Amino acid sequence: MENLQIKTFAQYKKAYKKSVKDPETFWEEIANTFTWHKKWDRTLEWDFRKPEVKWFEGGKLNITENCLDRHLEKLGNKTAIIWEPNDPDEESRYISYRQLFVKVSHFANVLKNNGIKKGDKVCIYMPMIPELAIAMLACARIGAVHSIVFAGFSSAAIARRINDSECKMLITANEVYRGSKKVNLKEICDKALEDTPSVESVIVYRRTVEPTPMKEGRDRFWFDELQKVDKDCPAEVMDAEDMLFILYTSGSTGKPKGMVHTTGGYMVGTTYTFQNVFQLEKNDVYWCTADIGWITGHSYIIYGPLAAGATTVMFEGIPSYPDYGRFWEICEKLKVTHFYTAPTAIRSLAKQPLKFVEKHDLSSLKVLGSVGEPINEEAWHWYNDNIGKGNCPVVDTWWQTETGAIMISPLAGITPTRPTFATLPLPGVQPALMDDNGEEITNLNEKAEGRLAIKFPWPSIARTIYGDHQRYKEVYFSTYENKYFTGDGSYRDATGNYRITGRVDDIVIVSGHNLGTATIENAIDEHEGVVESAVVGYPHDVKGNALYAFVILYDQTEPSDQLRKEIRDLVSSTVGPIAKPEKIQFVKSLPKTRSGKIMRRILRKIASNDTSNLGDTSTLLNPEVVDDIIGGAVITK
Ligand code: PRX
């Protein structure tokens, strides 16, 4: 790929132009730099109206051969993964490409020995330990489809995801360390498994020495299983369009969407963007602080970096343990060159005294990255000044679970940056800014604001929502004719730089976590004292957004702080602790349109304490409730 690496802004412009004029040739050249068993028959087939997208169909490959086998000759002894434990006194683990290759092949045989075959779905619910990476790559090695569920989700959320894709196996760990706490994952899984008929076996990695109750005939320990199989596992030959993984993301309805990513295009897209956005050099140490349970971890801790032959850091812990200097201590210790994190982490660390940063030598850093939500100006400058010391380009990368790979971002050291702007589309990405009438705003030389769509397919786009192609069509391809709709609002300056302004649908990003308000409302409504609820986001200076729940109670239910606690606990156990509403207001009714829809726009304004101009309320069926709600609002500022 080296000759395709962009090194100057002029090369970027040239590559971009070519990618628009002749996308197929552009991506073919990149795809040709990977290892294929057989070349593809057709480069691209697409129709956003159906919708259908296929890249490199007929091409045969295995992504793990591209992440592991092909590096063995030249990079076999290079460190693939550096693992940094939660406890700074526990030893870091360095895993070379050769060792990772052996571990993945060995564990792949465990999967086979437990009846997992090509096409079977495997749920992985694990902490940030190397075995999580090994488990996911082992699935890919034998053509099984991994569905990783973030290990902060509740039993009910795991069960819902397992059942949606009928996973045959669950891989987990007995416990997880998270700062000064220990969480029993196996217990959470056991509860989930009470209601998941498709799961035949459970593999448990022992992260701690605590006794772990095991269910006879179903549960097996990771190490015991390894003893039963050999270490050699040839890779399953996959079609480029075979499913690689399912990853659930929140939607505007209560049901999570299982985004389906396939093999060839995803590999090409993540690797190309990884190399060009971050501009890694041979001996660099790259650290993305995301959890592998999210798309950022899939694409930019595992697949992209490993396919590119990079050294990637995995961190088990949290930024505040044992103190707020932990990230910077790790940067110093591992001589991290590329550091990629989320604005919410930056904002919470920026609130701490600077001594936590100053006591560490950060001179190894070359590039800083941001992802997951808009980065505000203050956080951008704090990051640039105090972490990058003004010497490290900040790449603000905009993308989504659905896009698989970075879409709009500066290329480090190449694209001129502008605070809070994700700047320019990467080669192969054709954004369209849409106005209120659904027309594209085509003049790139005038600033404009609208909604962001994409008008041409890129290789790593999700192909469908698992089991619900109709929903895929409705959510992404029905808003604008023949275009993919992102759900984000965006501003474009007069030089074509994009700033993402936030979601325009019923998804709220809290601390970088994408949450569907409908899912939370469903959870609240399950409380026996609750008639109905509406959840909206409001600006929060650390979390980006926080949640505000308006709740209608039955007449006989007494509003109280105890009830607020019960509601929060209910949300925590059905969705996960991250989804707990910060504020809960009990109301008599909710503002509704004549067709019965809750007018969330008004609730958002009330939650943000911005009630001077509520806009047009004439279509409300019950305008009088607005003043009542304002009168009783839990003031947020
Ligand atoms: O609203 C955008 C926001 O995160 C959403 C996607 O969330 P998710 O699928 O969880 O993936 C997050 C990691 C890629 C987007 O629709 N978002 C992501 N990156 C940025 C962003 N908003 C502003 N600036 C970004 N750099």
UniProtKB/TrEMBL annotation:
GO BP term (any one): acetyl-CoA biosynthetic process from acetate
Ranges for domain AMP-dependent synthetase/ligase come to: 69-457
The Acetyl-coenzyme A synthetase N-terminal domain, residue ranges: 12-67
Molecular function GO labels: acetate-CoA ligase activity; AMP binding; ATP binding
Record domain AMP-binding enzyme C-terminal: where: 520-597
SUPFAM superfamilies, from UniProt?
Acetyl-CoA synthetase-like (SSF56801)
For this protein, the Enzyme Commission number is: 6.2.1.1
* EC main group: ligase
Q: Which UniProt keywords apply?
A: Acetylation, ATP-binding, Ligase, Nucleotide-binding
> Which family does the similarity line name?
Belongs to the ATP-dependent AMP-binding enzyme family.
Q: Which PANTHER family match?
A: ACETYL-COENZYME A SYNTHETASE, ACETYL-COENZYME A SYNTHETASE 1
Q: What is this protein called?
A: Acetate--CoA ligase
Q: Which organism is it from?
A: Salinimicrobium catena
